[in-house]
Amino acid sequence: MFALELVFAISIISLGFAGYLAWFVLKQETGTPKMRTISDAIKEGAEAFLKRQYVTISALAIVLAAVIFIGYSALGDPQRAWYTSVSFIFGAFCSALAGIIGMFISVRTNIRTAAASTKSAANALKIALRGGAVSGLTIVAMSLLGVSIIFYALGANPTETPFMMVGFGFGASFVALFAQLGGGIYTKAADVGADLVGKVEAGIPEDDPRNPAVIADLVGDNVGDCAGRGADLFESTAAENIGAMILGVALYPVFGISGILFPLVARAFGLIASIIGIMAVRAKEDEDPMNALNRGYFVTSILAAIFFYVATMWMLGNVWFFYAGLTGIILSIAFVYITQYYTESRYRPVKEIAEASKTGPATNILSGFSVGLECTGLPIIAISIALILAYKFGEWSGVAYGGLYGTAIATMGMLATAAYILAMDTFGPIADNAGGIIEMSGAPAAVRKKTDRLDAVGNTTKALTKGYAIGSAALAAFLLFSAYMGDVAKLTGKPFGAVDIAKVDVFIGAMLGAMLIFVFSAFAIRAVSKTAQYVITEVRRQFKIPGIMEGRVKPDYAKCVDITTTGALKNMVLPGLLAVGFPVLVGVLLKAEAMAAFLMVGTIAGVLLATLMNNGGGAWDNAKKYIESGMYGGKGSEAHKAAVVGDTVGDPFKDTAGPSLHVLIKLLSTITLVLAPLFI
Amino acid sequence: MFALELVFAISIISLGFAGYLAWFVLKQETGTPKMRTISDAIKEGAEAFLKRQYVTISALAIVLAAVIFIGYSALGDPQRAWYTSVSFIFGAFCSALAGIIGMFISVRTNIRTAAASTKSAANALKIALRGGAVSGLTIVAMSLLGVSIIFYALGANPTETPFMMVGFGFGASFVALFAQLGGGIYTKAADVGADLVGKVEAGIPEDDPRNPAVIADLVGDNVGDCAGRGADLFESTAAENIGAMILGVALYPVFGISGILFPLVARAFGLIASIIGIMAVRAKEDEDPMNALNRGYFVTSILAAIFFYVATMWMLGNVWFFYAGLTGIILSIAFVYITQYYTESRYRPVKEIAEASKTGPATNILSGFSVGLECTGLPIIAISIALILAYKFGEWSGVAYGGLYGTAIATMGMLATAAYILAMDTFGPIADNAGGIIEMSGAPAAVRKKTDRLDAVGNTTKALTKGYAIGSAALAAFLLFSAYMGDVAKLTGKPFGAVDIAKVDVFIGAMLGAMLIFVFSAFAIRAVSKTAQYVITEVRRQFKIPGIMEGRVKPDYAKCVDITTTGALKNMVLPGLLAVGFPVLVGVLLKAEAMAAFLMVGTIAGVLLATLMNNGGGAWDNAKKYIESGMYGGKGSEAHKAAVVGDTVGDPFKDTAGPSLHVLIKLLSTITLVLAPLFI
Questions:
Q1: Can you tell me the mean pLDDT for A178-189?
Q2: What is the distance between the alpha carbons of residues B591 and A64, in angstroms, rounded to a whole number?
Q3: Is the confidence at residue A347, as pLDDT, over 80?
Q4: Is residue A375 classed exposed, middle or buried when 0-12, 13-18 and 19+ CB atoms within 10 A define those classes?
């Protein structure tokens, strides 16, 4: 299997290259002692959180693995019991490891970016992006390597193996859910807490060193945006690989082993495209950093398309599948533009929110919420067109099941640039942290201006990644549905037939799936509110200590970090258990066909609500920034106060509930795949 | 057909009884000349709006009728062309007439309620409820009469007729959509405009006569809550009658004509139960008025259950169908309790929002929004259980298609108490108006206290009706799906098979259906914002006129009424056209099966989003009232200011977008039924 060896080789090379980038970043200067003190505090806080978080997640994962093992053994399927529970643990481990490595580098890149920005903005951009790329490359390569190792280990029966390794995907999504939930709750509780007491009540600026929650806030950027999103996309790539490979099994008579291994090869080629794209980013000193990042993205996209053509012709020998893949690549570009339209202040939606702020917080909220509702339209239409096209291209290939395989290949196309997108995403918290370090260390205004610009670009890239993540989740979902139906068909020994939502139990399954999305979001938002309350109480307590507000006494940052950690870990459990437990309950009660509808309509509701929350939140954030740039009275005006309210509301939308919904959608897919035998 | 004659008789008797109630109300005292001046202004404004609104709607309806006629003629089906377009116009006419009659009485009941409250709170309650009952009885009786007349006119072929009269339902829902949208935009634009400039900027109390928008605000209560909701429930009962009759056709071999006429008989019996319930309401002078209304509701429910038993045993001769109907009656009671839990200040959710207001508007909004998301859970579970039970009861009846007929009968059970619920609903705007008239006419504080209590009860009953409307829409939807599928099967001459959302085009239909719900809501909310801007500008202009703020110069109320009218009518067109046009486009492009998924998943998304908006809005409103009752600093405190923001956000949620979604769901059902031939 030359293809598999090639995938191994490219994964190892990519990990090596990530190592080189890490070395490159770590050899950079670390700035003044004052900057190092701040950076060390962030590092400690982030690492302490991650440690405690993974202890909690490990405990939950081990319990679940045991349940899976016992369950399958009781069902008289010891082989599935072993394979599923071991690959579950392995998937969980790889996902956690990818998160830890990414975080290790990003909390070390922030200070180096800050130090570089005292001299050159272009250099700071380069360091931040390369630090982010360590995450991006590691995550994609690890996911590829994990799947390949399982495939290699179980290789005796390549048509059985993909079914056996769904446990890997489930393990990955299980960790991803808690990583994203815990990280998302942490980051927004700290942010809301710091802002409400610091900015609103006490009237001190953001990232002011007198605010005891300021370090917790900076820690939050890492654990939420970096570790959380990393786990999210690790899971995306893993689940999508597995889904596509299962479909490849159905096509075994047509393509042989190539059809099964193609997704891995396509992803591996995408890694190379991303590496070249990352190295191609070179900003000029006075250029908008976003332009430099966009150039890199286009290099990656074009290379990905070319490589995709090569891979398709080599392994599948059918140009129609290349068109399907190209559809996915173009869809990802469309998502990037749509997200920009709804979240950047150059366009109508954000301007509308800013203008509505003039009449106070209520109209700001209404305007932002209607932008959130509206912005679900274009992405859904884009996905619909892409699905139809990919399906038609697949059908025109003349291959049996070609339509479905076409949609699978579109997903691969969309995820081909994943490593680059992830690098841009992790760039966000690094730039944000660098700005915080500069602000807290009292650097001159000119330097701050440089990091502010990087920070603003980081906000955009974070929004783009979320759009991309939800788009690929939607596309991959369709693939995973069919994998689930194939699994059930295999277990029952007869074709699945249809998912007929005109049947009463199937319709109920559909309703309950959509409902889970709403109730889960409620729990996620409430978890942020609860945790923020702890932070608010603590910051208020410390502000009363004489000397802190005057800057003479150093606040107890560690206390805030600790309180946020404990709160976030405690409050992530309820939504997490709901997400895992409710589908199982519905599946056991209503059985396989209703469960399929649960999954599909839950996915639709999840895509819509996540898009609403991600883009609505992003638009509120940038409407505030737009006013801060001097519109409608600028900072301190009534319009600004109203916009701050919108921004605060948008925070848990875009950084907790929205991203957690991405993971939830995929968790639903993997959970149904793993537990399918229970639903028969 | 004795049953049909009985339905005729009961409908006529109910209309006669509504006439008696109208006479009873109109003979009451009309208070002081000052009160009459205010009431006359409201009356004029409401009637002017209704007149202009129905001119616009008529124009749109005539165009659509012509399109339907030409379309079916072109398809070579002249019979369907005639029947559908004529019954469409007839349905639109009946719906409009029901709205006009209801409004005629309610704008005359408000002043009589106000006058009565100067003497006796118990008497005021009685007058307001009886005024509301004129609407309730007229709407249900008209819908019954309309369907019966068509059935009688086309009677030659009872198994064909129900298919022919789907036009009636479509006409009703078409008018209902625009009535609810236009009225909803009007009422909230006036409310938000009056509050933002009056209460927030100028700091004068609600309903203060110096506020130029105050009459527009009072007019809004009538055109939104009264005319809008009336059209909504007219449509519910009509569509549900037709859906159930179509199903009765499938059961013709089992029950004969009885199966087709049963829904009409069940509804007619429900009318009698409601009349007795309304007459049973007698409050004691110092009792909570809600208790008196609840007593009447229980009388109605118990009578409805008994009558249902009689009707079932007489016409269907199978006790299992009675159990199915009872399931519907119990579901409606469950909805009343669930809605109360989420929107009354006695319970955890509203208290939570009030408490979150202490830390400002942002936490108030987050808390309210998470309550809105969470409150979708119990209703969906309740509907699921009711659907399963009704289906099982139907199956156990031993009749072919019994399961589906069981769900139809559950819907009839739920709608049996519709007239009473509608009377309680219209009670709301009457009590609200009476309070406004008392406030503006400067009556003593003791009288105000009485009307305030009635007003608070009115808020609760309005929330209950919305819960009830969405619950019955969800239940009826399942029935209408099967009617649509039966229609398509009849047209193509082969069984529909399944709505298989695992097919790519069907899945896309499902996604687009859910998306329409989100985008439509965005447009509805934006329409309120836009119209409110006109009002805000006008009120600010008038406040600058010397003498107005000092109370020496009377503001130009008529100008505000006129501006709101023009704005609401202009801004209802875009969401309205989207709601009608998009389903047609999708159906034509993706065909019948995808359209079924569009309808079903759109309904699910609509139920969820409407529940979120209705209950979230109600909870925000009552959290504000809870604080005004003295909690967390009471009126004027920071917590109160934050709660006012939440209330303002909740207004277009609960009174524009939410209720419009009810109608949209049903419009989707009737539009697919009418246009089914285009989708083949």
A1: 90
A2: 44
A3: yes
A4: buried
Handedness of CA B407, B408, B413, B418 (dihedral sign): positive
Q: How confident is the model at residue A1 (pLDDT cuts 50, 70, 90)?
A: low
Residue B71, pLDDT score = 84
Cα distance between residue B248 and residue B460, in whole Å: 36
Residue A207, classed as helix, strand or coil, is coil
Asked whether B471 and B381 are in contact (CB, 8 A), the reply is: no
Q: What is residue A480's three-state secondary structure?
A: helix
CA distance B134 to chain A (A): 35
Q: Which residues pair with A500 in a beta bridge?
A: B500
HEC per residue, B319-376? HHHHHHHHHHHHHHHHHHHHHHHHHCCCCHHHHHHHHHHHHCHHHHHHHHHHHHHHCC
Distance CA B572, CA B568 (A): 6
Q: What is the pTM of this model?
A: 0.94
Task: For residue A636, count other CB atoms closer than 10 A to its CB.
Answer: 11
Q: Tell me the C-alpha to C-alpha distance, in Å, between residue A97 and each of A10, A93, A106, A142, A234.
A: 19, 6, 14, 9, 11
Low pLDDT (below 70) residues in chain B: 1, 155-160, 163
Tell me the residue range of the domain where B149 lies: 2-679
pLDDT of residue B164: 72
Q: A 183-202 residues with CB below 8 A of B?
A: 192, 196, 200
Q: pLDDT tens digit string along B202-215?
A: 778 777 888 888 88
- Among A104, A124, A96, A102, which Cα is nearest to A112's? A124
> Measured between alpha carbons, how far is A671 from A469 in angstroms, rounded to an integer?
19
**What ipTM, to 2 d.p.?**
0.93
Chain B residues within 8 A of A372 when measuring between CB atoms: 522
Taking an 8 Å cut-off on Cβ atoms, the answer to whether A608 and B508 are in contact is: no
DSSP secondary structure string for all residues of B133-199: HHHHHHHHHHHHHHHHHHHHHTTT-TTTHHHHTHHHHHHHHHHHHHHHHHHHHHHHHHHHHHIIIII
Q: What is the C-alpha to C-alpha distance for residues B97 and B141, in angstroms, rounded to an integer?
A: 12
pLDDT tens-digit map of B419-464: 999 898 888 889 888 888 888 888 888 888 888 888 888 888 888 8
B:528-587 residues touching chain A, CB 8 A cutoff: 528-529, 532-533, 536
Closest CA to B532 of B576, B555, B562, B563: B563
**Which among A352, A355, A363 is the top mutation candidate for probing chain B, defined by the most B β-carbons within 10 Å of its own β-carbon?**
A363
> CA A442 to CA B376: how far, in whole Å?
49
Report yes or no: A498 at the B interface, CB cutoff 8 Å: yes
At A246-294, the pLDDT tens digits run 777 777 777 788 888 888 899 899 999 999 999 988 878 778 888 889 8
Distance CA(B44)–CA(A239), nearest Å, equals: 64
Report how far residue A215's alpha carbon sits from residue A159's, in angstroms, rounded to the nearest whole number: 51
| Segment A539-554 mean pLDDT | 86
B446 contact A CB<8A: no
Rounded (10°) angle between helices B229-250 and B402-415: 150
Sign of CA dihedral A296, A299, A305, A309: negative
**Distance, CA of B651 to CA of A583 (rounded, Å):** 34
Our count of domains for chain B comes to 1
The answer for A 363-402 residues in CB contact with B (under 8 A) is 363, 365-367, 369-374, 376-377, 380-381, 383-384, 387-388, 391
φ and ψ of A498, to 5 deg: -125, 160
Among A459, A400, A449, A606, residue whose Cα is nearest residue A518: A606
Rounded CA gap, B411 and B243, in Å? 10
